[in-house]
Design brief:
Number of strands: 5
CATH class: Alpha Beta
Strand order of the largest sheet: 1-2-3-4-5
Structural class: alpha/beta
Radius of gyration: 13 Å
Order of helices and strands: EEHHEHEHEH
Length: 115
């Protein structure tokens, strides 16, 4: 299922509603190229993601590096304990800023000026 994109106060929120696995990565981009030019901060909401495999992890790392090279930011929010465990086992949890909520991410990137 295609992710949903919402733009709010300099942030692009990307809401995933399915597994991030090999099949998903073959059929979808984690972030569509046309949206990358529209924001400098990308927040990936994984609340509805119950499964991620090595292809999904590889794509997360790839998009993180691509955005970082463009001086853009990417973080993850609303991660389930299962997804967090996969990131820990993969030893990549430290790569991504992880927040409990959009509000926490917004405060981190925009400070007290965030609504």
């Amino acid at each position: 299922m295609e992710p949903e994109y919402l733009f709010d106060n300099k942030i692009c929120l990307v809401i995933y509603k399915d597994s991030i696995d090999f099949e998903f990565c073959q059929n979808h981009s984690l972030i569509k190229k046309q949206y990358i030019t529209q924001s400098d901060i990308f927040v990936l909401d994984l609340k509805q993601v119950s499964f991620i495999d090595s292809a999904g992890i590889g794509n997360l790392v790839g998009i993180f590096r691509s955005l970082d090279a463009q001086s853009k930011s990417l973080c993850l929010i609303n991660i389930s304990p299962n997804i967090r465990k996969v990131l820990q086992i993969s030893e990549i949890e430290h790569i991504f800023p992880i927040f409990n909520s959009l509000q926490d991410a917004r405060f981190h990137y925009l400070g007290s000026s965030a609504p």
